[in-house]
Structure formats: structure tokens, C-alpha cells
Amino acid sequence: AGGFGVNGPRTRGLPPVFTRVPTRDRVVFLTIDDGVDQDPATLRMLRELHVPYTAFLSDDAVDGGWEYFRAAHEQGAALQNHTLLHRYLPGLSRAAQRHEICGMQDTLRRHYGRAATLFRPPYGSYNRDTLEVARSCGIRAVPLWEAEVFPGRVVYRDSDLHPGDLVLTHFQGRAQWNGSMADALRTFLRTVTEKGYAVARLEDYI
Q: In which element (H, E) is residue 170 found?
């Protein structure tokens, strides 16, 4: 693993935190957070281009739009945990963190019949309580990210893409960005292609 926030000695035995998956394959992983923008054109584009991705959903962002993400799941997306209310977890008590993480597990189980195995803390911020609570409610790993995509630009934590990098974007649209989610996806796919990478399914590599 590389990048920021990876497990240190004090977090051994807890779900691994990583921003890059060790691999020699020239692949990167698309992860999409939150769930605010629910444009059917986004799902159509992802399906038609056969782009694998992992969705990290938060209950407040989805705001009742569970059928949209059921459709995403039916066309191959993995649905994972991003908390109930997208709060800054290190500022919360252990009990409040449990409510955020395990409560989202219950929500996913209620809507889709199964809880998540992966968890992404909001803002990429966590502490030992976060990891211990996540483990207690069934989380196996905590993927963060190495690069973030917006319409027309990519922001790298390092200077470039590397094999196994996790790339973040959001279910957002013109209300949040100067552009559409389709614009962000086109930026991602163009960048990946130009740099000689393919897009792989994260869950197949961890």
C-alpha cells in the first residue's frame, strides 16, 4: 500500500487501511462516494462502457433513493459503507461512531439483504475507535484513495497514477460541480486510457 493514512503499529489486527492495492497489473479502481446525484444517465454510461466500480453510500446522501442503487448493484456495482450521516468520525464518541458505521450496515442489510465488507470513513478520517467499531460490525477493510476526479481534472496525492491506485469521485452533478457526473467519468476514463491503465473491480483484488 502507499499514500496516506495507512495502518501503523497501533492498528495491527484491525481492518487494513490502504490507498493502493499491491499489484503488478496495470489497473486502477474506481470508487464513487455518497449518493446525492442519481441521474439514470450515469448508470447507463457505466453499464454501456462496462466500467466496474465500488459505491460507498451514506444514508443521508442517498436520501431514500435506494432503488437507484439497487439498479446499480444489479448491473454489477458493489455497494459498501460510508456511514449514515457522513460525520467526521474522530470527533465522535465510540458509541456515536458505532451508530454511524453499524447503523449503515443495518440500512444496507435492510435494503439489499447483506451488509458491506468494505468501509470508507468520511473525509478519509478515522481513529482507532473507528477501526475497532468497523471490525465489530463486519468490516474487513478500509479503502481510502490516491487520486480524486472532478469534471475536467484529476487531483493526485502523488504526482501520477500507479498500479493498484484507488480513484475517488462522487455521485454529484451540476448542483455540486461545474460540470456533470458524465463529465467526471469521461475525465477519469480518458486519463486512465492515456496512461495505459485498465479499470478493475476492487473486490476482485482484496
A: strand 166-170
